[in-house]
Amino acid sequence: MALTVLLLTAALGCQEQEREQKPEPPARTGDPAPQGRDARFTLVASGDVLPHSSVIRQANADAGGRGYDFRPMLAGVEPVVGRADLAICHMETVYGADGDYSGYPLFRSPPEVAAGLAATGYDACSTASNHTLDAGAAGIQRTLDALDRAGVRHAGSARTATEAKTPTLLRAGPAKVAHLSYTYGTNGIPLPEDGPWSVNLIDRDRILADARAARKAGADVVVLSLHWGSEWQDAPDAQQLRLSQELTAARTDGRPAIDLILGTHAHVPQAYEKVNGTWVVYGMGDQIAGSMVNHSGVHDPRGNESTIGRFTFAPPAEPGGRWKVEKAEFVPQWFDTGSHRVVNLNERQDQSVVRDRIRQVVLSRGAAEDGLVMGK
Predict the structure, then answer these.
(1) Are strands 305-314 and 41-49 parallel, antiparallel or unpaired?
(2) Quick check: 290 and 57 in contact, CB under 8 A?
(3) Could you tell me which CATH class the domain 2-14+37-374 is placed in?
(4) How far apart are CA 257 and CA 252, in angstroms?
(5) What pLDDT is stored for residue 17 in this prediction?
(6) Lower CB count within 10 Å: N or C terminus of the chain?
(7) Three-class secondary structure of residue 200 per DSSP
């Protein structure tokens, strides 16, 4: 009973207001990154994919009642995601099987989510979240298997100890990008005794050790996804501020250990900030979620607002130097819970108030002075 209470309390921020009641490819290493203008690449990243019951019902309706189709929900951002050299999502939930699908508080999403993400243009997803153990080790297995079948790489959870220790290396144009992913916790669900490596938990020393191992494995750029922060809080909390300082200050062979930090979990958009010369997105918000209820028990429209971060990396002037972000952008998004569609707010003038609120939050820690702009 105590565990049940803990689960419900810790997961409350993910509650929806109901409108009705292939084996992992080996890490790739190789030649030094090419130089010159053609060596640039763009990386985009987006927030939590959190399919509540209403979202699952809509995916079934979009499939004509035969299965589940998540592609129509995401079609509005496909032009942004599909044009990137590397696109990263956050798959907050695990997958169920044989029609056993559910929303809050213990999520089991249809595995067809993976195909929808792939069709939109996502290359990889972070999978470490407070819901990663909602269905135990079997849920992790089903989720990673489905992502593999869809051709979407993943980081943050694992099926074996070997997989947990293997860096996820991705190709972005000419560069090799390591993707790391960690969560603050698992809603009180203990790690499996026979699989303590199943989910990566946030630990500064562990993160830096993994980042250095990824460099050794050939990564030109190290991208870190963190499921962290305080739900429903626009501003980053003390842990986010402390960790961002410590992680971006760390060095490996004379260059930063981490090149970009991508935050999820808070359910609302949070600020972007350049910390020690490295871009940190404290929270991107929820890309897909039902109509959300905050900790006060009332509907909170911020739970359906989010951003896509887009970063253009340029190669180092000298071999062994740092790939630098030469252009940083954010694209404001909104999940319309009436139509169940992700909307690029640059294309919806009737939602200019929502767009402007997101922009104000994103720029609240001085990112504009460091060059962050709102992209199309």
Answers:
(1) antiparallel
(2) no
(3) alpha beta
(4) 5
(5) 65
(6) N
(7) coil
